[in-house]
Specification:
Number of strands of chain A: 2
Order of helices and strands of chain B: HHHHHHHHHHHHHHHHHEE
Low-confidence stretches of chain B: 461-503
Largest sheet of chain A: 2 strands, antiparallel
CATH class of the largest domain in chain B: Mainly Alpha
Number of strands of chain B: 2
Radius of gyration of chain B: 25 Å
Strand order of the largest sheet of chain B: 1-2
Oligomer: heterodimer
Low-confidence stretches of chain A: none
Helix content of chain B: 55-70%
Shape of chain A: rod-shaped
CATH topology of the largest domain in chain B: Growth Hormone, Chain: A
Mean pLDDT of chain B: 81
Shape of chain B: globular
Mean pLDDT of chain A: 83
Number of helices of chain B: 17
Strand content of chain B: under 5%
Largest sheet of chain B: 2 strands, antiparallel
Order of helices and strands of chain A: EEH
Chain lengths: 52, 503
């Protein structure tokens, strides 16, 4: 492997910092999705309680 | 021995870039298909606008039985975020990213918020209206969750539009900007019209289940369209990332704002945009009731009136796109937009006194043309004047002023009419008086805007001014081609290793 490739991650050829940044967007998205889903479930439970 | 590692790397290095969301190099010429794809974000913004201001406005009051004042309050919530567009634009200008990205992260975040708001909105509205068991739930749950959902959608919408427009400005060369502005406006209108029809048809037989389907369908569509729009648009740029990484001082908003506002005519342009948008925003909601009440037009006729207004706006856009595309100056066009609007308002006022529908329709058409010319001219002027490094801030300021003025205009139109109608010392007011007062105010606002606009200097395409704040951008080697008057830089490094480098 080339020397300039040492701090790169494969298979994308991104540098480590770049890859971590792309990953952070994914993590952020997952968190927002999670919170939204939780909120939606609570609101549905208020209108039509399915737990009892 | 067969070197399977090299083989696999070789294969994967060739396949993987297809699945990464950035463009590899800044291209010289951005094809129309890519701009069309980018403009999809305007469709989602239009969708959100129609859903909130039109569809939900009615559904909440009629079907869900929520008090009208509460509905008005909820729908006004997104407006709170409009001034923050300036801040969002600034943040995107000075964003620090290892990928050299400035806009895409914000479009992604904005889309997430917009999606999230729509995802919880139907349930929040059902709880708010006391549907099912929610009738026993504490009041604050419905209120706070509905407010949260509207805030999320509003914040996401403002973010996506501001940063999306900044990205569009980044991508195309100055000569092509008028075409992009036209495209963005038309896509916004297109999104609004289609959404209004589709939502109307889907919600004709209202059920709570249908409401959930429609709003959440809108949420999913928003996310999909925005992802399609931003995919592979912004180039990855390692040299810019390096500059961002090395930056030691955190940029301050106040400093950048001062620098921007001092910049030749920026403040005056914002004032013109504010006054003009306020005037044109007030007329929208009042034309139909005016036609019905004062000129005794039928509902079908007044609906056609709105079509006349929208048609005029499209004619204005079309003419502006054509002229500016041939290297015209945007400011004279904006002035022409104001000049056409003033007699339009007078024609409408005169129509009440001589009872002439022809006058009225002609006036409405003139106002539409004026609004189209004005909107296109001012946005193009904003893009052209945006100093290098402050593109996001400039478009954020445009959006903040424009959205705030339009929102206030809509509210103010109704409020002023009602105030005149119920003035305590006037015993009997004729039908047309409150409308005439509002239209006269609008004409005055336009004249004020014209005075400010006339004090501004015209500029055709210029390059020198960009150098003023250019010091922060990286110096590139001579052999790298500079794109779009120094806004985008070709990537310094080959983005992906050539297969033979892998061993």
């Amino acid at each position: 492997m080339n020397e300039s490739d040492l701090n790169k991650v494969w298979p994308t050829g991104l540098t480590l910092r770049e890859a971590e940044e792309v990953h952070s967007y994914l993590i952020d998205g997952t968190r927002v999705f999670g919170v939204i889903a939780l909120l939606a479930h609570i609101l549905v439970a208020v209108t039509t309680p399915w737990l009892g | 021995m067969f070197d399977y590692r090299a083989f696999v790397y070789h294969r994967m290095a060739r396949i993987a870039p297809k699945y990464l969301p950035f463009a590899d190099v800044a291209t010289d010429e951005v094809p129309l298909s890519r701009l069309l794809r980018l403009s999809l974000f305007q469709v989602t913004v239009g969708m959100a606008l129609v859903l909130m201001a039109g569809t939900l406005n009615r559904v909440m009051i009629v079907e869900l039985g929520v008090p009208a004042s509460l509905v008005a309050g909820m729908l006004a919530l997104p407006l709170i975020f409009a001034p923050f567009r300036t801040l969002i634009g600034f943040k995107s200008d000075t964003f620090s990213s290892a990928l050299g990205w400035r806009r895409t992260p914000f479009i992604w975040k904005g889309s997430m918020w917009q999606f999230g708001g729509f995802a919880i909105m139907p349930f929040a509205l059902l709880v708010l209206s006391g549907y099912g068991e929610a009738i026993d739930a504490p009041r604050w749950i419905g209120l706070s969750s509905a407010a949260l959902s509207f805030l999320l959608v509003g914040a996401g919408m403002h973010m996506v539009q501001t940063v999306g427009l900044a990205l569009a400005t980044d991508l195309v060369k100055e000569e092509a900007q008028p075409r992009v502005v036209g495209l963005m406006y038309v896509m916004l209108l297109f999104g609004m019209v289609i959404a209004a029809f589709v939502f109307g048809a889907l919600l004709e037989n209202y059920t709570p289940g249908r409401l959930i389907q429609v709003i959440q369908g809108c949420a999913v569509l928003t996310l999909i369209l925005n992802c399609v729009a931003m995919w592979k648009q912004e180039a990855r740029d390692r040299s810019r990332a390096e500059v961002m990484f090395r930056r030691t001082v955190t940029p301050k908003f106040v400093d950048h704002w001062r620098q921007f506002i001092r910049y030749d005519g920026a403040l005056r342009l914002l004032i013109v945009i504010g006054l003009g948008t306020l005037a044109y925003g007030m007329v929208d909601v009042l034309l139909e009731p005016y036609g019905g009440q004062v000129l005794a037009m039928s509902v079908a006729d007044t609906t056609k009136l709105t079509a006349v207004l929208a048609g005029g706006t499209l004619v204005g856009f079309g003419y502006a796109s054509m002229t500016l595309g041939r290297n015209g100056a945007p400011l004279p066009l904006a002035r022409a937009g104001i000049v056409i609007g003033v007699p339009g308002f007078f024609a409408i006022i005169a129509a009440a006194f001589i009872g002439s529908i022809v006058f009225f329709v002609t006036g409405a058409f003139a106002i539409g043309v004026g609004a189209g010319l004005f909107g296109h001219g001012t946005l193009t002027a904003t893009m052209r004047r945006a100093p290098e490094g402050h593109v996001g801030l400039a478009l954020g300021a445009w959006g903040a002023v424009q959205a705030t003025a339009a929102g206030i205009g809509v509210a103010l139109g109704g409020i002023v009419r009602d105030i005149v109608l119920y003035l305590p010392f006037v015993s009997s007011v004729s039908d047309e008086t409150p409308y005439v007062v509002v239209f006269a105010i609008e004409a005055v606002l336009l004249v004020l805007a014209l005075i400010v606009a006339l004090s501004m200097r015209d500029k055709r395409i210029r390059t020198a001014n960009r150098e003023i704040v250019n010091s922060r951008t990286p110096k590139e080697p001579k052999n790298i081609k500079m794109m779009g008057k120094g806004r985008e830089y070709g990537s310094l490094h080959p983005t992906h290793p050539r297969p033979q480098e892998v061993s």
